[in-house]
Amino acid sequence: MSQEKNWTQLWLKYEPKKEQGNASFFTGLVWKGFDHENAIIKNAQKELINGIQGMLGIALACKEEDKATLIIEKSEDAQIKEDGYLLKEVDGTLTLSARDEKGALYGVFHILRVVAMEKSLKGMDALVNPDNPLRMYNHWDNMDGSIERGYSGNSFFFVNNEVVVDERTVDYARFVASIGINGVVINNVNVKNCATWLITDRYFEKVAQMAEIFAGYGIKFFLSLNYAATIELGGLDSADPLDEGVIAWWKEKMAEVFAKIPNLGGFLVKADSEGRPGPFTYGRTQADGANMLADIVKPYGGIIIWRCFVYNCTQDWRDYKTDRARAGYDSFIQMDGDYHENVILQIKNGPMDFQIREPISPLLGGLKKTNQMLEVQLAQEYTGHQIDVCYLIPMFKEVLDFHTYCKKGADTVADVISGRTLGNKNAGIAAVINTGNDANWTGNDLAAANFYGFGRLGFTTSLSAEEILEEWIRLSISTDENVIDTIKGIMLPSRATYEKYTSPLGIGWMVTPNIHYGCSVDGYEYSCWGTYHRADHLGIGVDRTDKGTGYAQQYYEPNASMYNNMETCPEELLLFFHHVPYTYVLKTGKTLIQHIYDTHFEGVEEVEQMIAAWDSLEGKISADTFNLVKVRFGRQLYNAKEWRDQVNSYFFRKSGIADEKGRAIY
Ligand code: GCU
Q1: Four-way CATH pick for 134-476: 3.20.19.10, 1.20.120.430, 3.20.20.80, 3.40.1350.10
Q2: What is the C-alpha separation between 430 and 455, in angstroms, rounded?
Q3: Which CATH number applies to 498-542+579-655?
Q4: CA-based, 20 to 30 A from 441: which of 42, 155, 367, 581?
């Protein structure tokens, strides 16, 4: 931790490094073609100077061209795209070429990363263009300072209903820019109370200041919007998107907002969802609502990101036809092609809600004429609250690699959200994140791997989960090979471990209602959120086949048939798609009930192994990190045991079938 700040520098520590022959590149710097007064260029220059001073002890100075060892130049080279860069070393001179300022900034962070990882810049030849046009973080911060699903302290954007702009804002912008993030939404999608007023002069001054800081790091500023602001702010009696008065109010409001916040990229909207208002109230479609706002923000270059998390959250348990999993698709698919060019539909990776295992939402790629953005969650709402270790990048890789069969040769989710499938620019990837004012930003130090990893993956989708993890360990914890291997051994399988001790084979939930940490097998079974597991004394699972809710039919072939058929359905999703008897024999030769018992015992054993591995790091890594994570591992083990015992006991009592291995089941 730096002396004057009470927060860490995460992967931008700039501590002294072993010389890897890199010093010679920092004897003379020359900038060519970029405007030195540009805020992004100024920040890139500052970062480079500080980083090189900190890591190599060299005072990097600008020199005449013939003494240059590092050249940063503006380039028209056609292979370098927007935000991209080319980094090339020839005869001891390193040249960073970029089309625009953001590319130069990202290239500078690349150089600093190589030095920080103690790798060599010699022989460098890398063309790096971002895969996704929009790469965003969505914060769910409330203006009273709390964070919805926050497990790392309170908000550093808001305190006591005021907007906070300070040094931490700058550091946050540096961190996210260094991993390629180019858009940030600062307030919760559930826009209530003071947050509705963010688009008024009560807050413009501070909001504009924050937006300007972000602009200096190439980050567009976004706000979540209250769909019913016409009523709550405007005093109208309607939010009907086709009402002339409503349209006129928004026109005037948006003219004001874009004038007051010059770096505003647009808005994120959660409508008709979990009690939030929306166009359905007025008998209008989601497209009516999204298009109305989009047309109004269009003259200012604004976009409307419209969430597809729309479902009926009051489902009777006797109703076997209504299916929450179907709802997103059912609400949005018919209007495919009707959404205007500056609307992007933001779709959660799964059809339910960020569970440890879900199928990929059939809306992704299901829509063939609509801009789409993928939404994942780094806030570990259902994956251990940043107490339990759960490295999520392997899960996001699975999502991106999924074949939707929407278009031959360009049908993966990665294709769809990058714009490769539709040839569109308004597309991308967003993550719900809950960085807070804890010193380490993420509650558990190890959860910062998700914070880092999402940005890197969003920029370069082809990076593997392991490469990203290794980078993060080298930058944030240690460059010692043994430490790297040990932490990789803990984190790479951590998602699989979490899955083992929690809900089995894609069924999800079984969490304590509302807080979503800890086991409660029937917690949501007797409430109306539509998340039933439907366990009885014979079996468990939801029939989503053509004989059940029909959800499997929302996919293109061959996915629809694959999921519909119990024999071809991937087993990790078996209970999501099928109601299965406990005696059903899986491909491993084990019965379903034995699989449940075995995975739950294994999950706890794996946590014990993680802890032993972590203990071996004592004295080899920072004591602060070692101790903080050790305490959390203690809580994770307790949690894992509780899950194991509750789940095993529940299914033993339901089924009456004993564990073949005779282990303790309560
Ligand atoms: C989940 C989460 C809520 C959140 C919602 C959303 O249901 O529990 O806190 O508001 O997702 O994504 O809008």
Answers
A1: 3.20.20.80
A2: 9
A3: 3.90.1330.10
A4: 42
Is 274 a catalytic site residue? yes
189 lines ligand 1 (CB under 6 A): yes
How far does the centroid of ligand 1 lie from the alpha carbon of residue 290, in Å?
20
Q: Which residues of 297-329 are buried (b: 16+ CB within 10 A; e: fewer)?
A: bbebebbbbbbbbbbeeebeeeeeeebbbbbbb
pLDDT tens across 470-485, in order? 999 999 999 999 999 9
> How much distance in Å is there from the Cα of 224 to the middle of ligand 1?
14
Instruction: Count CA atoms within 13 Å of residue 533 on its CB side.
Output: 27
Closest CA to 550 of 236, 232, 320: 320
Alpha-carbon span 444 to 452, nearest angstrom: 13
- Looking from the CA of 244 toward its CB, the CA atoms found within 13 Å total 0
Which CATH code, of 3.30.379.10, 3.30.70.1170, 3.40.630.100, 3.10.300.10, is assigned to 23-128? 3.30.379.10
Q: Across the strands, what pairs with 29?
A: 62, 70
Peptide bond before residue 570 is cis, with ω within 30 degrees of 0: no
**Tokens 């278009």 sit at which residue?**
407
Q: Note whether 134-476 and 498-542+579-655 share their fold.
A: no
Q: Is the CB of 270 within 6 Å of ligand 1? A: yes
The whole-angstrom separation of Cα 7 and Cα 171 is 10
381: annotated active-site residue? yes
Residue 269 has pLDDT above 90, yes or no: yes
Could you give the CA distance from residue 175 to residue 23 in angstroms, rounded to a whole number? Answer: 24
Every domain of the chain and the residues it spans: 23-128, 134-476, 498-542+579-655
Pairing of strands 264-269, 220-225: parallel
Quote the pLDDT of residue 64. Answer: 84
pLDDT at 2: 46
Q: Is the distance from CB of 230 to CB of 236 less than 8 angstroms? A: yes
State pTM to two decimals.
0.98
Identify whether the C-beta of residue 175 lies closer than 8 Å to the C-beta of residue 223.
Answer: no
Token pair 């040990």: residue = 486
CA-CA-CA-CA torsion sign (633, 616, 117, 470): negative
437, 154 contact by CB (below 8 A):
yes
Question: Which residue in 83, 101, 272, 381 is the catalytic one?
Answer: 381
